[in-house]
Amino acid sequence: MSVAGLVLGTGLALAQETSYSDLIISEYVEGSSNNKAIEIYNGTGADVDLSAYTLQKQRNGAGEFVDKAELKGTLANGEVYIVVNNQANEELLAMADLTSGSMNFNGNDAVGLFKNGTLIDIVGNEDDPAIWGEDCTLRRKCGFGPSTTYNATDWEELDIDDYSGLGEHCLPDNEAPAIDYLVTTQLDLVSVEIHFDEIVEAVSAGTAANYTLDNGVTVNAAVLGEDSKTVTLTTSEMEPGKQYTLTINRVEDIYGNATDNLAHTFYFAYVEVADIAELLQLRESYVDAQKYRITGELVITHRNGVNIYVQDKDCETTEGHSFVLYDKAETAIDGEASVGDVVQGATGSLTIYNDLFEMQFLDSASVKPTGEKVEPVISTAAIGDVLGNNLYHSALVRFENVNFVESEETTFQASKTYQIEDADNTIDFYTQTDKTADFIGMEIPEGKGTIIGFITIYKGNNQISPRSAADIFPKENAVEGVQAVRFSAYPNPTAGQLNLNVEADRYDVRVYGISGMEVMSLKALSGQAALDMSKLAKGVYVLEIQTAEGVSRTKVVLK
Stretch 189-204: mean pLDDT, rounded? Predict the structure, then answer.
């Protein structure tokens, strides 16, 4: 019998009006570690003796049903019986009517409910090793089952370790459908995707006349998705960044509850904010699934895989002006973009991950086509200013007159935590896992110096991570040191071309911004050479000459 055929229009739950032919598997929990559970529901209209019933499962989608759990007692009509893995967490074990080591499935183990040795209901694909139910909870929709063939559309999929509904099935529902969230995109100006908080009835949800939009926008079609909770509207053209109100009337759930002029106001495609500083003010009030567009220009300060650290281009301090763009698909920003490049039109949804406020790209962003590099601003702060300060998350920060706390190691290792301290406070120094980190294996400096890095958070605590060796006691600290090789660089100041005369058969040249960011490099030079610095921004740079005998540095002014 179909769900539509079960709806009586009284607003009462299907469970109260429906007579199932036998017991059913009503929920499947494939959680983390040993958190596994099966819920069995009695909707037969009478109490059932469980002594004839067993739960059995296949192993990796093949072979006989084994690992039997024998049910016990009597299951009253309208009640559930929960079988939990005997090594699950305390919360799940507290819900159990029966614990069994046999209920230890991993996403491709079909689980069957047997009566007197005969299969009467199943969750999962029998004799199929493909993954169908890993890291999720499957909750059966009301009115479906029992069935000896698994049909995924009869089940609602929830997140891993979500067993909030375990212990009840198909309770009375007198609430009309509500909007969970909307999805719109500037790539499609005639579409609105509505996500309801429950399954909706097909005919009313697919009737375009039940949806209206203001500002002269018409709704031309409404299509219900396969999950029976998502409706896609086709509309006349809408304007990105503009506010609209959607009104929904007479859309029903499967119990007959209908919306009554339900109004939802949203910004189509995105909400515009001027800069990161304005965006950070939304940390406690941003709307899930709503996209936001930063109209100001951003400067890349670090790139580590899909994580792109940026700051407002014209900021004077990184406190309150830094952010992470999480380019999950690695398509929104050119893979060649690097530190100093300018990003425009950053548009995406917001999220808080491990207490770090960040943007996930869903639409677009572009790198300024000029290709010119911009020297990132770096805030100079005491360690105490940064500890516990959310406005420094993802920011480039300079700590001066700090030293490394003594450790058992003498060289930097990957993915390791060290500590640095100033006169008053200590902060963790984490080396990250970035494969391009050129400081791994470098000796840990002794004495006091300057550390530059971006601020991240781990287990609730702020920590600093360098981008490269240039951030660890940066090169300008050694400018006045003894030169290891004799050379001259002229004219200094220069308008663009810098001439070099180095007393070495072979040498490498690197140029760093005053922050320590490498902006130019030349290798395998000999004797005289010329550097074209005309494309760099005006300012002070550090010139580094490296030979087999050592390294020499000097400051260069570009006017």
Answer: 95
d(CA 168, CA 28): 13
135 sits in the region (left: phi over 0; alpha: psi -120 to 50; else beta) called: left
User: SS3 for 207?
Assistant: coil
Cα gap 473→439, rounded to integer Å = 11
Q: What is the pLDDT of residue 356?
A: 83
Please, which pLDDT band fits residue 428 given cuts at 50, 70 and 90?
A: very high
Q: How far apart are CA 64 and CA 105, in angstroms?
A: 15
Q: How does residue 66 score in pLDDT terms, banded at 50, 70 and 90? A: confident
Three-state DSSP at 202 gives helix
Q: Tokens 């140029």 — which residue?
A: 511
**Dist CA 449 CA 62 (whole Å):** 63
* Residues 448, 451: Cα–Cα separation, whole Å: 10
Number of H helices, E strands in the chain: 6, 39
pLDDT score of 16 more than 70:
no
Burial 281-290 (b: 16+ CB within 10 A, else e): eeeeebeeeb
CB 207 within 8 A of CB 259: no
Can you tell me the distance from the alpha carbon of 327 to that of 43, in angstroms, rounded to the nearest whole number? 47
Residue 267's alpha-carbon distances to 75, 209, 240, 247, in angstroms, are 50, 22, 8, 14
Q: Which long-range contacts (CB under 8 A, 24 or more apart) does 115-121 make?
A: 115/22, 115/23, 115/52, 115/53, 116/52, 117/54, 119/65, 119/148, 120/22, 120/23, 120/146, 120/148, 121/22, 121/23, 121/24, 121/25, 121/145, 121/146, 121/147, 121/148
Beta strands in 466-517 (DSSP E): 487-490, 497-502, 507-513
Quote the CA–CA distance of 547 and 245 in Å, as a whole number: 67
Which of 397, 334, 343, 346 lies closest to 374 in space, CA to CA? 343
Span 378-412, pLDDT tens digits:
999 999 999 989 899 999 999 999 999 998 888 88
Rounded to an integer, the average pLDDT of 350-371 is 79
Cis-peptide, bond into residue 491, ω within 30° of zero: yes
- Supply 491's token pair: 């004219």
**pTM of this prediction?**
0.59
**Res 394: pLDDT:** 93
Cα–Cα distances in angstroms (integers) from residue 434 to residues 340, 440, 468, 512, in the given order: 18, 10, 10, 21
Q: How confident is the model at residue 474 (pLDDT cuts 50, 70, 90)?
A: low
Phi, psi values for residue 118, rounded to 5°: -110, 130
Are the beta carbons of 274 and 321 closer than 8 angstroms?
A: no
What are residue 461's phi and psi, to 5 degrees?
-115, 135
| 510 compared with 277, residue with greater pLDDT | 277
Phi, psi of 41 (to 5 degrees): -120, 140
How many CB atoms lie under 10 A from the CB of residue 151? 10
Could you tell me if 212 and 253 are in contact, meaning their C-beta atoms sit under 8 angstroms apart? no
Share of the chain above pLDDT 90, in %: 56
Torsion of CA 360, 362, 363, 367, to 10 degrees: 40
Query: Which residues sit opposite 508 in a β-bridge?
Result: 546
